Amino acid sequence: MAIWLARLAIDRWRLSEDCEEGQGADADPLVLITETAHGQRIDAANRAGTEAGARPGMMLADARALCPRLRAVPSDPAGDLAFLERLAAWARRWGPWSALDPPGGLLVDVTAVDHLFGNEARLLADAQAMFARRRLTARLAVAPTAGAAWALAHFGPERAILSPHEDIAAGLAGLPVAALRLEGDVLTVLRRLGLKRIGQLGVIGRDALQRRFRNPRSPGANPLIRLDQLLGLKPEPLLPVDPPRTPLVQRRLMEPIRHRELLDQVVADLAADMAGELESRGQGARRLELGMWRVDNEVVVRQLEMAAATRDAAHLCRLFAAKLDGVEAGFGIELVRLRANWTEPLALAQGDFAAPPEAEGTSLAACLDRLTVRLGEKAVRRPVSYASHIPERAQRWHPPLAPEPAEQGELAFHARPLKLLDRPELISVLYATPDGFPQRFRWRGHVHEIARVEGPERIAPEWWREKGGARLRDYYRIEDGEGRRYWIYRLGLAGDGRGGAPDWFLQGLCA
């Protein structure tokens, strides 16, 4: 079995993303760091940082002593692992399955695949070019076992190839013992014994190594286990990456179509098939991609995003109708494929059998979808909740297709008025004592006698945004003599040392 392993510089990819736009990844010394019990430690460095003296495992303070202008960015191991998983699914273009080798490696089974590229050398050249297009530096190797491929990718020549007919032990004898993927303390012991190359392990004999290293369970602590895995004498289980399968339906047409009516019929059939596929999974589509393959090998792609998850075939057909107006069929379309790139859970709902469909009306999500398709994504906005106790900051306007921001929980225990003013309006309030309940207030030229008062509800300023002199707010729900209810607040307290007398504002109208 031929195994291809790519040792990727994923940290370097992240370093290039953190650089300023228009500058190279190695323009300035830059490192990724991790907080440890002994301080900040370097995980990776770009080329400029390496030339300045920064090395993985070095303390950041020591590196800055060598290079004071070294810039540090926190590392993201979880993000790197997620990116590596996506990259493993992408790398299956070179083999039937792929596996992870964290923190920056991939294993791809290329058995009986090299002839599709010409030979193994051309396969590696194609992979090298594809990684370069993704701004990834990679070292590639092909070998009969995963351990041999790992050793060649890390310590062998560029794009090394070890044929299954060659002697693996002889081909890897000159590599250092670190190529066996051993733990650091084991490598230290081997070096103290004078065993620096893989070939020297065969000279000293298995009995001597067995007496010195007796851990039969941990491969990283036993050179014999790693050596047997390297030579293929002992199996090494690998867990292939199984990417989630996106819902996909397609139609291969017996005759190419050119007319819009036929294309609409094919799209309607695909929408019905997609609705059934999504229903079987208990999901709804948020983003759909319609691909149309023409006879001249040109592909026309139309994307569609919905404000809410749906699997209504008729609704999808209406939305795609506006997207297909400018499609050029050329000599004809022979393949149409519909794929749901973004799905969300959508439970089954019991419909009303008595109500006719035309009496049900249009949902808000369907209305947003139609407006977005017709007017454009930037022309439609929707209010979304925002994690803030300050009423005027508890809501923001977002595009209908953008995901909602993270919240800190709905403040359901706070009663809020039905309508908030765009800006709180200054009012004049009469009260018995500075800290007592209001008795009368003037707003927009009218005087209102207060019959009932509920409160106060104190809202402190957001200390991470406001200055130190920001004043407290005390909110009251009041009702005047005519039964109208308002939401007012007092800004500041008498004698709080943060200004003069408190001001009063009206911010909302209650039902």
Description:
- There is one protein chain.
- This protein is an alpha+beta fold and 511 residues long.
- Helices cover 27% and strands 30% of the residues.
- The strands form five sheets. Strands 15-16-17-18-19-20 form a six-stranded antiparallel beta barrel.
- Strand 7 (138-143), helix 6 (146-155) and strand 8 (160-161) form a beta-alpha-beta unit.
- It is flat.
Question: Which helices and strands, and how do they pair?
Answer:
Layout: E1 3-8, H1 10-18, E2 30-36, E3 39-45, H2 47-51, H3 60-66, E4 71-74, H4 77-90, E5 98-101, E6 105-109, H5 120-133, E7 138-143, H6 146-155, E8 160-161, H7 168-171, H8 184-192, H9 198-204, H10 206-212, H11 223-231, E9 248-257, H12 260-281, E10 283-294, E11 299-310, H13 313-323, E12 333-345, H14 364-375, E13 382-385, E14 395-398, E15 419-431, E16 438-443, E17 446-459, E18 473-480, E19 485-491, E20 503-509
Parallel strand pairs: 2-4, 7-8
Antiparallel strand pairs: 1-6, 1-7, 2-3, 5-6, 9-12, 10-11, 10-12, 13-14, 15-16, 15-20, 16-17, 17-18, 18-19, 19-20
In short:
With 511 residues, this protein is α+β, with helices and mostly antiparallel strands. The protein has 14 helices and 20 strands.
